[in-house]
Amino acid sequence: MYTEFYEFNGKPFQLTPDPCFYFDSSTHHKAMAYLTYGLSQGEGFIIVTGEIGAGKTTLVERLLNELNTDQYVAAKIVTTHLDADDILRMVAAGFGLDIHSKDKAVLLNEIEVFLRQNHKSGRRALLIIDEVQNLPISALEELRMLSNFQEGDRALLQSFLIGQPEFRDKWAFAPELEQLRQRVIATHHLQSMTDAETREYIHHRMKIVGWNDRPHFTEDSFQEIFKFTNGVPRKLNTLCSRILLFGAIEELDIIDKNTVLNVIEDMEHDIASSGPRSQNINGLKPALRNQYSSKNSHMNDQEVEALKERIYLLEEYVKIHDETIKSALEIVTDLVDQNDGQGS
């Protein structure tokens, strides 16, 4: 709707990662530099971490989009809670190998054969693991074992590990991952964008779809946008989409502070109305309860209730996300078992 009203040729703030909208903020520029450096080394692990919505997936898509397919073959895997054997199946499937009715030994052999054939053809194999924080130690060790495959002094596989902040502690301190640590050649943590970068980000994405200062965003509108999103790309996309929709409905040519505050109020009302009206603090997870107790004693009752509702909803969304992925994997497993049964 707002694309027609503002005469855009596309949606500037869609949530689906699109490398065409990549914005080279200072933190993303550094991350891309580490990824490029890693590619030049041709071996080891490159690790990029960041908060939810920080733009990790968009960064990876940008990298893949720039690769010469004559020189590289890449497999991208988005993980959930997989064990060691499952991760091998995912890797094999990611490179297009048949995984039906094959045990671990057979899978490892076929992955190695594929990597050696790929090397002989003059191409380098890249493995990108997204949401790597979900993997147990055993699965990470299997990935490390894959890095042992070599042809002479050349590694046959290079891996990029992309995950949320908690993965930093896992790979940096877990005693079981000492050998993996020795093979990490670069690492970077994505920060939030600054106030100035947030403004440039919004302008950048709208210009791509034909924006010509309609609607015009006032200075105070940017201040409120940054205050609410803290420069996190996914939060920016969600808020700005709602702002443009509101602007189209109200037929606004100027987006000011009051417009942004109205949209934020609507969004917070939507969150609150979709969950319980009150949530006892004792029902929160211990870590969240402690954080709540230590940092939010200055809030009034209304602000406290709103915060508790938002935390509750966040936990519910995470649960739904995990259950959805789990169900999808169970369906895939059932289909594989059915095919195996038909084949026999």
Short synopsis of the structure:
By secondary structure, the protein is of the alpha/beta class.
Structure description:
The strands form 3 sheets. This protein has a 5-stranded parallel beta sheet with strand order 2-3-6-1-7, with helices on both faces. Helix 4 packs parallel to helix 5 (104-120), helix 10 (219-229) runs parallel beside helix 12 and helix 11 packs across helix 12. The protein folds into 3 domains: 2-11 and 193-273, Helicase, Ruva Protein, domain 3 (Orthogonal Bundle); 26-190, 3-Layer(aba) Sandwich (Rossmann fold); 280-324. A hairpin with a 2-residue loop joins strand 4 and strand 5. The chain is elongated, with a radius of gyration of 23 Å. It has helices at 2-5, 26-41, 56-66, 84-94, 104-120, 137-146, 166-173, 178-181, 195-208, 219-229, 233-249, 257-273, 286-295, 301-343, and strands at 45-50, 72-78, 124-130, 150-151, 154-155, 157-163, 184-190, 216-217, 254-255. It is of the alpha/beta class. The longest helix is centred in the last third of the chain and has 43 residues, at 301-343.
Q: What count of helical segments does DSSP give?
A: 14
| Largest β-sheet summary | 5 strands, parallel
Mean pLDDT: 81
CATH secondary-structure class of the largest domain:
Alpha Beta
The CATH architecture designation of the largest domain is 3-Layer(aba) Sandwich
CATH fold description of the largest domain = Rossmann fold
- Total discrete domains: 3
What structural class results from the helix and strand content? alpha/beta
Strand segment count:
9
Q: Could you give me the name of the CATH homologous superfamily of the largest domain?
A: P-loop containing nucleotide triphosphate hydrolases
Distance between the termini: 53 Å
Strand order in the largest sheet: 2-3-6-1-7
- Low-pLDDT windows of residues: 277-297
Shape label: elongated
Question: How helix-rich are the residues, as a percent range?
Answer: 55-70%
What is the alpha-carbon Rg in Å?
23 Å
Strand content: 5-15%
| Helix/strand order, N-terminal first | HHEHEHHEHEEEHHEHEHHEHHH
